[in-house]
Task: structure prediction
Amino acid sequence: MTSAKILVVDDEPQIRRIMRTTLTAEGYSVYDARSGEEALVAVREQRFDLILLDVNMPGIGGLEACRSIRSSSDTAIVMLTVRSAEEDKVAALDAGADDYVTKPFGMPELLARIRAALRRLPVSADSAVIRAGDLEINPSTRTVKVGGREVRLTPKEFDLLQFLATNPNVPIAHVKLLQAVWGPDYGDEVEYLRTFINQVRKKIEKDPAHPRHVITEPWVGYKFQV
Amino acid sequence: MTSAKILVVDDEPQIRRIMRTTLTAEGYSVYDARSGEEALVAVREQRFDLILLDVNMPGIGGLEACRSIRSSSDTAIVMLTVRSAEEDKVAALDAGADDYVTKPFGMPELLARIRAALRRLPVSADSAVIRAGDLEINPSTRTVKVGGREVRLTPKEFDLLQFLATNPNVPIAHVKLLQAVWGPDYGDEVEYLRTFINQVRKKIEKDPAHPRHVITEPWVGYKFQV
DNA sequence: GGAATCCATAAAGGTTCCGTAAAGACCGCA
DNA sequence: TGCGGTCTTTACGGAACCTTTATGGATTCC
Result:
């Protein structure tokens, strides 16, 4: 499992901090929002695998935010509520939450529910090992093998290769690749791509001059061939 | 506090899924294997507190896997069998299983047997002596021996080494290590790790410059190698 | 054919990460 | 109060990685 993206929505800075450290330690990539409004903006701009949503917030509350998010997305939603009243549970689930946890809760329990909610998602296409000829890409351990021999890739190199490999045989535009690996702020720094593609090829291709996996699509971008 | 690690071995995906969700909800950390072969590999690489082992599998069957595991480990083993024949029961226990459950079984019953099996282990997670090459870690006395000679570790040093050693061959992220040893409030003080890892290496490695047990995983964290 | 664009490759800073040493802070204990 | 051990914090050099620039070859378009 390449780290799932989790959005933490809570108005208390302390809680956000604890969540961030704990979830980061578990290998998730964590984002946070301080209010329902912020959460809605974030959801509109990015795709998250799971959203941790506090019920009790000023402004747009958790329930309303939940309904709004659910109406436009199938992200897993776990709600945090102080009261354990039955009606709250019903309200949360009615609003479209997948699960809910009542404060105070232990971290192990929360983590378990997060794992459970993530598992429910449609086919974690990420955790499968990708094979292509003598090449073997393992997203969970972030390792790559060429003909059984392990090859060491740097973080960026691996991200690049993985993104290409998860869309095999499909040409991917320069800009799209850049944004996927470097983030949304990188629009036209295509030089990065050139140098890193070159680097990756030197490590995984027998003959970097005539690559068999990382193919360049002239005037378009690159593609991964199986 | 650390939830018990359970390995589920079954060739049917459905059963693995149900087990996973149920056991996870109970607070266990669940791993699975699809065959006896996979189970043996997993056991070689990690330490589990309990193994749920289906008898009837293609390839290496449950009984054979059980014998193999038992020969090198004292993990609790609970077998799952379809038939309730007395001979099967005997065969299972002879192979070294601690208990067995006949399908179809109710989840409450299975959970009860799991709890019982875990209870039977003399505080297994903590008291088992960990060996790796010339290294010997004794959690109950909190002592470490290198080639028979006892080495003195400070409390923090020992905690660090122990946590790494209880998850052998698995890279552990910086943040996770920090939180496990220093507590949940330590998010990014990675300097501590550096100094203590260095300290531990000087004490347990013949050549600290080329460590054989405490291995650094660049850009990720550290791992303990057996 | 010539100019422009794109691509592969190499290589120079700048930054981050890791190992190592060492000084200061804290604590228990005589 | 002083002492020894442990933990925290800072500092620094080397290595690995990322960014950036430069150069030459290939392809396209006019």
User: Anything to note?
Assistant: Residues 190, 194-195, 197-198, 201, 208-209, 216, 218-219 of chain A lie near DNA strand C (CB under 10 Å from a C1').
